[in-house]
Amino acid sequence: MKKISTLLVLLVLIVSSCKKEPQISKETELFSRSNSKLTSSRPLNPGDPNLDATWDWTQHSWTAYFNNANGSVGSVTTLNPFIDGAQKVYGNVDVSKADMYPANGWMLVSRDFGTPTEANAYPFLLLYNKHRGILRVCVLRTYDVQSSYQQITLGYATNTTYPKFFLYSSTKPPYAWTVEYPANPVNTQSSDYKQTAVTFAGVQQWMIADFDVNGYSATFDENTSFNISVSEVTQSDVVLNGNIQLDGTAQPQAAGSPSALGIIKNAESFYAKTAEGVAKVLKIPETDAAGRIAGGGTLFLKSILGLITGFSGGESAVPYNIKLKGTINQTGSIKLTSPKTSFSVYLKPLTGSVAYRAVQNIPWGVFYLETSNAVVEDVTHYTWVTDEYGYPGEVYDGFSRSVKFNPNFFANSLVINPAIANDVASVEAWGANTGVDFVPVSVFDQTERWIWAAKNEYPLQLGVKITFNNGNIVYKLFSF
User: Fold this and answer.
1) 378 and 343, same structural domain?
2) PROSITE patterns from the xrefs (predicted)?
């Protein structure tokens, strides 16, 4: 008869096998040297039409060439996804109001729609809105792969430094940049700078995701490049039902020796029955033992931790016979992620380069706000009271926080990207004695201003709104 510790280890192995979520994480390098025909990138030699910075993405349809699995070049002509009601990227919109025109701030960053003689596996297009700070990634889903959805991830390719373009990304609280964006981000891991979006494109439809890159850096490394990764994700629901019966002998162990106590903590989804010995093993009255058994004798396995404790370091060396019997009921899901393409695009153009690069100078980033110029203060409040004997003393009476903005706060703290400064119509602020409305930052700066809140009213917030001449608006909420 096996030892109970061995049986418990087997039980945990069952749990681990039920909960495991296999995931593939390999990404293809730029200009992959593998023998696969589904290359993620290809060199763009001088004269390649994909280097044309004047290419019109607002045309009614797009024709893209892609590399088939057998090495041949195929092609497909799709309706422009920004006006394609069937694809429902942005709905069945009025073409004149589609969110894609240069007049709305959009610029061409890079693309590879292939050529009749050479292509990659997944044609792509990158657009950037210079006023809203949005990078729009469009990747053609060329192959019929059974999946629940697709996942697009934007990050930085490995480099020595990383600009603060993701500084105000909506995927993280505004105050998080003190950790993720140090003043001099040297040798910071690129994994700290990622955004992920989910798409539901069909075959020969465009997977499209918008990413927030409006944090402004006055300078950044010439070798800075974005990395775009695309994966197919398949998710399945799983229901497991079964029975389990364990018989064994539990031998007391000396204090400090290895036991199954730490392992069993992960087996919370299993149920078992104990037919004998609960009160004896736990050294408690039978009435108390009965209280640990719920639902007609079903004992949640986590409660067996008490039993295991009885075996570990116990005073008696007499082994206990244990019989555990019950049912297994588990529900959950299994998610399989399969990377399909990964490519990098340099943020600055360079004549003669064959790598994917911006085809023109892009005014990356919209603004930067130095919030450390605001003074944050935490205050603990006490009240003087007299006790029953007539002696005075301090009693805790709450906690509050305040943020002080000195005059000319915005004048000293806000930097608008000079490349787009002439396009700005107004900059306004809200949150410090401004009532319910935004006020021009010039008005905000005229006097000392405060935001105050009790502890349960966190966070203290400052709103900034930048309006451009073409009607574009950037709004950000800062928490302190």
Assistant:
1) no
2) PROKAR_LIPOPROTEIN
pLDDT tens digits, residue range 225-266?
999 999 999 988 877 777 767 676 665 554 444 444 333 333
Residues 227 and 156 both lie in one domain: yes
CA distance 41 to 31: 5
Q: Which two tokens stand for residue 478?
A: 């800062």
Q: Are residues 342 and 275 in the same domain?
A: no
C-alpha span between 301 and 322 (Å, rounded): 14
pTM of the entire predicted model: 0.71
Q: Which sign does the torsion angle of CA 222, 137, 169, 193 carry?
A: negative
Q: 3-state SS of the chain: helix, strand, coil percent to 5? A: 15, 40, 45
Residue 28, domain member (yes or no)? no
User: In the chain, how many domains are there?
Assistant: 3
264 and 156 within one domain = no
pLDDT, tens digit (0-9, with 9 covering 90-100), for 415-456: 999 999 999 999 999 987 777 789 999 999 999 998 877 665
The answer to whether residues 403 and 452 belong to one domain is: yes
User: pLDDT tens-digit profile of 179-211?
Assistant: 233 333 333 344 457 899 999 998 999 999 999
**Domain of 98: which CATH number?**
2.60.40.10
Q: What CA–CA distance (Å, rounded) separates 294 from 162?
A: 56
Q: What is the mean pLDDT of residues 218-223?
A: 92
Q: Residue 298's pLDDT band (boundaries 50, 70, 90)?
A: very low
* Pair 151, 225 in one domain: yes
Q: Which domain holds residue 463?
A: 368-479
